[in-house]
Structures are given as structure tokens and as C-alpha cells.
Request: fold
Amino acid sequence: MNHWIIVPILLPLLAALLLLTGVCRGLLLERALSLTATVAMALISMGLLYSAAGGGFQVYAVGNWTPPFGIVLVLDRLSALMLVLTALVALFALIYALTGGDSIGRNFHILFQFQLMGLNGAFLTGDLFNLFVFFEILLLASYGLLLHGAGPARVRSALHYVSLNLVGSAIFLIAIGTLYGVTGTLNMADMAQKVAGATPESTAVLRSGALLLLVVFGLKAALPPLYFWLPEAYRAASAPVAALFAVMTKVGVYAILRLFTLIFGPEAGGSALVAEPWLLPVSLAAMVLGVLGVLAGRDLRTLVAYLVVASVGTLLTAVGLFDAKGIGAALFYLIHTTLITAGLFLLADLIGTLRGGAGDRFEPAAPIFRPQFVGALFFVGTVAAAGMPPLSGFACKIMILQAARESTAMSWVWGVVLATSLLNLLALSRAGSMLFWNTLPEKPNGEPVPVMASAPIIVLLAFSFLLIALGNPISAFTAATAEQLLEPAGYIKSVLGHLSGDAMRLAGGG
Amino acid sequence: MELMIACAIGTLTACGVYLLLRARVFPVVLGLSLLSYGVNLFLFAMGRMASDSPPLIDAHASAYADPLPQALVLTAIVIGFAMIAFLAALALRAYVDLGSDHVDGGECS
Reply:
């Protein structure tokens, strides 16, 4: 067994525990430990990606208990991709936080490491209840991180966020209970087999359980009508926390991708593709509602928060096509959007501090001292976010439009994607001109741009160039990941060692 | 027996949802507690109702109850307890910070 698979879970846990015991008292030591742990985690995640990129599934049976009775961690291309994305966003958000964001409240680094542990665990696990437990870990850490720095705005948005997520957890438990009661197992691979071979009487209950899961993951991913918590929460959170939260919605997307291709995918017998009639319309609505929010935003942070809503809509539109091209396009877009929105959140905070009293609100204010550098960053970030050539947003959009060409919903997808892109472009241009050109005839705020704060922004936005430069290998990887996802037989065989008769029959002989 | 458990789960969930929708800080905490009671009972019931069946190996047992849902319920209770404790502290903080016990803060109706 490759023991490196459990390290992304254990390493942040160890770092958090060391920080909790107070061995490293003092901000400098805390920062050093946290940064070292995150850098190590990033390197290990990239190593895992390298080992998973060749295909195949690496299964880690925790405690050496044999599946399906024990909990398994499964490393395939998708898990490895999500691990690397989390590690990269976390690393650069942490570097930005070291410029001062981590000392506005207490226990930032402990909560940050627990958050990373929860995220990595959620991406690696192959057991449904274990997914619930890791969701709770990452949610509880996120509650603490959202409240970091206190203040009435944060407390109000945190109250909404916490209550909604507690309801979501209750619904998650109901769904898990329902699925367990019918299939008798919690292991995802075993459940996939049991669902595929289910009797017609249990199909209705299985489908209800599946749709309940869709509701829960839709709440996490901020799909309409469950997205109202997101703009307030992301607006109120401090910048490095908001950047890390760019990965949090993607946990919901990952869970939808994993469960609705593995367990309720095209080969699930009576429960096959239960999410298909719902996912596409809801995602298109997400794009429309997101872009309306982007147009209406009165400050840059709210605008970027609604961009997250719209990006989740675009992602799940591509996933909702449920074919290899669609999911491949979705995964390429996932990489692009996670990194770019994280960079934009950090950039919005930077612009806010540089503009002084007006913050990042769209109102005339004194000009920024030497705005060329920050303006260039803003230009790159918004070109990437709006999906304009030559950056990666454009490539993603082309891939999604091409994937939609063969589906029956092509006119809907094309219409909504292109219209929302235009409106996004309008809103972002207006934001840029308000922030940089609509200035009062006053002396500029004389603060120079801090180097350490702008470095993570530069790197995150530079990933857009990297995605275009390495477009061929990366899109080959995402296409291979999509193929791997749409063949659950490989996953089931690796975890359980064999396929049961029903699953083999439905998979066309394995 | 199943009917009684089902009615209990339904009542708890209904009361929990009603309290949640009251949109005042303390009823929300109570409502989420009731909802979590209902959900834990539901999880437990997934192991099928049986009397006189222990979940652990016992020399005198004729039949066993499914131990896995009971383990799930234990985990869920512990997680729920921690979450409700956190929410109660947050609710108190919200009441103090926002000056109103409405969840949106400041609305008085």
C-alpha cells in the first residue's frame, strides 16, 4: 500500500495539533510551522498527482480493514487533481495571510490546517459516511475561519452560513440513512454495485436518496435556490479566507461528480442518471442569477463572490451533459476558475487597502499611487475571469460549447453561456473603470504596493497563462480523468477486487 | 413499533423546521437540535426495529441488531452536539453584536 496517500490528511492534522499544544508559541513560529506544513503538503500532493496521472486507482484501506467493511481512501486522477488544486490555493492564500490577515483574530493557523485536513479527506475518501465526517470537519473549520476577525457583518453572515449548513448536514444524514437502509453498505464502490443490481421496489427509495444528496451538494456548491448564503459570506470573510473558500464550493461539485458518475451514473440500472433532468436547468439558472449579481454588485468583493456562483453554474452545466467531453471541459474549467477566483479575491482585498477609505466599493475616490501594476493585475484577472482570448477562460468556454454541441440542450447552453459572458464582460469593465479611472482630483494615496501581498496574486493569475501554454497536456489529462470517471467498473474492481454479477452485466461484461 | 418511531421522527422534524423558520436566533438553535434528534432517530431506525437483539456478540443472543447504524448515530450525535454548542455561542454573539434577536439582525417585526 502506498502510505503517501494518507499523508495529505495526517500532515495538516499534525501541524494543527502541534499548534494547538502551544509548542510554537508566538506568531513567527506559528507562521513558520503552518507555512512549512502547507508547502510540504503541496509537494506531496504534486507527487501523488504524478503517480495517479498514469491511470489506475490506488486504494488505501485505513487500518488494513478489508473493504467494504473498512473505510478506504481512493486516489485516482480526479482526487489527485483536487488535492493539488487545494494545496496550491491554500499555499498562496496562506502567503497572503502572512502579510497581516492572520493576526486580526485568534487561532487562524490552527483553523486553516484543520480546514485543509477536511478538504483533503473529503477528496480522498471512498466511503459515504466518511465523506460526511470530513465535510463536518471542513465546515466547522470554515465557520471559525469565516468569523476570523469578528465584526457584525461577519457574525451575521456566519449565522446564516452555519444554520444553513447544519440543515444541510441533517439532510445529508437522512440521505445516508436512506441509502444504507436499502443497500446495506456505506462503501461507495459496494454501493455502486448494490444500486446497479437493485430490485424495482427499492429503486424509488434509492432515487429519493440520490436526489437528497444532490440537494446537499447543491447547498455546498451554492446552486440555486440554495446560493443566497454565498455572496454575503464571501463578502464578509477576510481575504485569505475568501480565497480558500474558492475551493469550498468545488467540494460540492466534486461530490456531485464522484457520486453521480460512480453510484448513480449511466450504468446504475433503475437509478441511472437520476440527476440528469435536474442538473442542467439548475446550473443554467445559476449562471443567469450569478451574472445578475455580478451586474448589481456595488463592490469588487461582492462581484467576485457572484462570479463564484456563475462559475459553479458553468461547471455543473458542463457536468450536466454527462458525457466524456462535457466532464473533461468541466474539469479544465474547474482548474481555471478555482485559481483565478482565488487570485481575484486576494486582488480585491489589495485594491481595497490601496484605495484607503473607499475600500473596493464602486465609488469615486482618490487615485491609487502608481496604479499601473495593480491595474495590470486587474486586467489580467478580469480577462481570465470573463473568458476573453488569449487566456484560459476562453479555452474553457470553447471546450464547454463544443461539448454541448452534441447534446439536445445545445441551444440553451450556447445561449446562456454566451449571453452571461457578455454581461460578465460588461460588469467587469465597469468595475475596472470605476476603480481605476473614475478618480477624484485629489492627491493619490501614497502607499507603495506591498511585494509580499502581490506575489501570491501574481502567481495565481499567472496560472491562467500556464493553463494556455500547457493546454494540450492538461486537457489530455482532464479528458483522461473524465473517461476514468465514466467507467465505474474500474473503480469498483480496484476497491473490492472483483465485480459482482449484476454490475458486470450492466457494465457490458466488465 | 415502526409507526410509533415514524411518527416521532415526523413530529421532531416538523417542530424543528417550524422553529427554524421562525428566524429568531434562539428558536433556530432549538429547531436545529430537534431536527438533529429526528435525524438521529431516523438513522437508528435504518437498522430495522427489533427487540432483545444486542449489537455486540453475546453468548445468549438469538439474533443481533445491526451495529453499524448505531455507530453512525453515535458519530452523528457527537458531531451534532459540537455544532449546536458552537451555534449557541454564535447565536449569543450575534444577539449581542447585532442588537436584535432576528437572524438578519436589526429587523424588528
Observations:
- Residues 136 and 402 of chain A are 37 Å apart (CA to CA).
